[in-house]
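Q: What residues go here?
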């Protein structure tokens, strides 16, 4: 048999859950989207993950992504992009969203531009690019919204 105090507490919890459902759970924490892990070790793998522009970038998450291009063996495979510019992004935001805490590892392959994170007008913090092999034709370093080219 349930005590009166437990019954009142149970009713309050149930009422709070029902209210949350009716309001679209706007007052309750939403689950975070986990970062994506993208491994492009062969040309075939690149063909599967590239977007319509031929770029490699996470599609579901702007933060905590890990993108790895190539293998520890080195060499020119995979070749990112078939013509024109070829981009690799750890995180990419087209709007005001932030691209944070993304990691890109370049082990082999050929590409033109590599970004740890990029946002059109949002914050870009805590991103990293580690190049241990391969060929990166150009790189860009963004510090406080200024562009530095090499």
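A:
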């Amino acid at each position: 048999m349930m005590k009166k105090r437990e019954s009142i507490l149970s009713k309050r919890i149930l009422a709070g859950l029902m209210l949350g459902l009716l309001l679209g759970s706007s007052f309750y924490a939403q689950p975070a989207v986990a970062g994506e892990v993208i491994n492009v070790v062969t040309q075939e793998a690149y063909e599967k993950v590239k977007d319509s522009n031929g770029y490699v970038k996470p599609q579901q998450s702007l933060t905590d992504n890990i993108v790895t291009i190539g293998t520890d063996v080195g060499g020119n495979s995979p070749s990112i992009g078939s013509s024109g510019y070829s981009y690799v992004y750890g995180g990419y935001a087209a709007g005001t969203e932030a691209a944070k805490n993304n990691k890109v590892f370049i082990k082999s392959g050929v590409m033109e531009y590599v970004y740890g994170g990029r946002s059109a007008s949002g914050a870009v913090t805590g991103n990293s690019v580690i190049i241990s092999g391969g060929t990166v034709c150009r790189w860009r370093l963004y510090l406080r919204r200024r562009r530095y080219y090499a």
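A: Context that may help when evaluating the design: Residues 4-22 form the longest helix (19 residues). The helical segments are 4-22, 43-49.
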